[in-house]
Request: fold
Amino acid sequence: MRTAWLLGLSIFVFFMTTPVLAVKVESLYKGVVPVTTQAVSERNPAMQLALTQVLIKVSGNDQILNNPQLKSRLSSADTLVQQFGYLTAPAGKNTAPYLLEVQFDPTSVNQWLRDAGAATWGLNRPLVFAWIVYEAPGHPAEIISSDSANEVASLLKQDAVQRGLPFLLPVMDMTDLNQITTKDITDMAIPLLTNAAKRYAGDAILIGHITLQGDSLTSQWKLILDNNQWDWNLTGKNMTEIAPPLIGNITNTLATRFAVVTTNTIQKDILLKVTGITHYPDFAQLTRYLNHLTPVANVEIMKISTNNDVILKISLRSTQESFIRALSLGKKLTPAPVTDTTDTMVIYQWNP
Reply:
C-alpha cells in the first residue's frame, strides 16, 4: 500500500482541485471603466484608470498611487494588458454607453508592485460577515439581509467587489431569526453574534448600526478578527457617502495584516511538516494551496513518512511571520498540538 502511495504521487501532485481557503477572490486583475466611445484616444487613458483599479485591489491599499514608481509607470498600462473588450453599459447605472473591460497579466502586475516595494494581497482573502441594523423614523429597525431591498445591502456589496473584499450578509431565515434580534446588534452583543455567525464560516465579523436622523445618516461599526477589534463612526447624507469609506477602512485594515511585501529573491527556506495526509487528493490540494500563498516562491517535497506525515521545504519571498499569517486564513491547515516547532520547522495538521 505504501509503495502504491509513492508511485501514484507523481501523478496526483498535479491533480487540479480547488483548495479550501477563506475565500478565493476572482477578477482581482480585471478593471472596468465606463467610456463614451470605442476610440483608441479614449481607450488608452481608460486602460490606465482600469489599472489603477487593479493595483488598489491587488495591494489592498487605496493610497497605492502615492507610490511614485507606480504612478510614473501608469502610462505603460497597455503593456500589461492580456485582453480587453467592450460591454453595453446597464441602463440607468452609468452615464456612458459602454464599459471597457480590461484583463491585466497577474504576473506582470505583481512584478510592478514588487519592483515598487509595495505589498501584494493574494487571491485568498478573509470573508467578512456582517450583522447590520438600519433604523429610520416611521421605519421599524431592520436587519439587513443578503436579499434586502434596502440600498445598504447593494451599496456595500458593490463597494466590496470594487475593493476585492469578500463580503457576506445573513439570509435571515428562521435559524437566524431564532438567534438574533435587532437589539442584539445595536447593543453589539459580541459573544451572541459571534456564535450565530458560525454557520456562515466567516473569518471576520462586522457589526453595524445605521440611523437616519433628519436628513443625514449616522453609523457605528465594529470589525472583529480573532482577538482584534476596530471601531469606526461614519456620517453622511446617504449610504453612498458611508459605504465607500467603510469598505475602505475594512479593506485597508485587513490588507495591513495580510498583504505582503515580496522580493525577487528567496528570503528564507523553512520546513513545513504536515500531519494527517492520507490520500492522493489531500496531497495535491495541499501543494496547490501552498503555491497560491503570496509569500511562497516554491514548494519542494523533502520526505513522506509512513505515518501520514509530509515534510516540505517552503521557499519564501517574504518573512516567516507573513507565511504563518497567510496559513491562518486556510480552512485546511491548523497548528498541530505539538511543542517541537522551531525557527526552521513549523508543524501543521491537515483537516480533510
